[in-house]
Design goal:
5 helices, mainly alpha, about 150 residues
């Protein structure tokens, strides 16, 4: 019996893999996972810079280190969750918009940015949602312009 991992994939297998990885569900989940990882690293770096919670200097050095690491872990996890949600909303909405419009242009990223900003600001009310929409849309347009300025 031959090893299936040494054989090149068939056209049907490639088509099935392309259909799976090209789906909006896959892109949304994958972006959420990647956002979680990036957010964790970002939160860890920023928590190392931030000095918001004073350490009890009367405690032992070992206890102080445990407290600092616990605080860094909590901030890193919080940042990771926020990045995961933001990345999943943006990626999912951009994919659905692109699928609906059948075009790949700057308007997809601007609309996805608006949806993301508005969704993340839903607890702040209509004014906050409008500001979030405008801010994320402008940021998305700027990033899209920068990424495609040489095209």
């Amino acid at each position: 019996m031959s090893n299936p991992f040494t054989q090149p994939p068939t056209q049907e297998q490639r088509a099935a893999a392309d259909d799976f990885t090209g789906s909006c569900a896959f892109k949304t989940v994958f972006s959420g996972i990647a956002g979680f990882g990036i957010g964790a690293v970002f939160g860890l770096v920023l928590s190392g810079i931030e000095f918001s919670s004073p350490v009890d200097t009367s405690a032992s050095t070992k206890q102080q280190i445990k407290t600092v690491f616990r605080d860094m872990g909590a901030k890193s996890f919080s940042s990771a969750k926020n990045f995961a949600v933001m990345a999943a909303i943006y990626s999912g909405s951009e994919c659905m918009i692109e699928s609906y419009r059948a075009r790949n242009d700057v308007y997809n990223s601007v609309a996805a940015g608006c949806i993301t900003g508005g969704t993340l600001a839903v607890r702040t009310g209509p004014k906050g949602m409008a500001a979030g929409c405008a801010g994320f849309a402008a940021f998305s347009a700027a990033i899209d312009w920068y990424m495609h300025k040489d095209d």
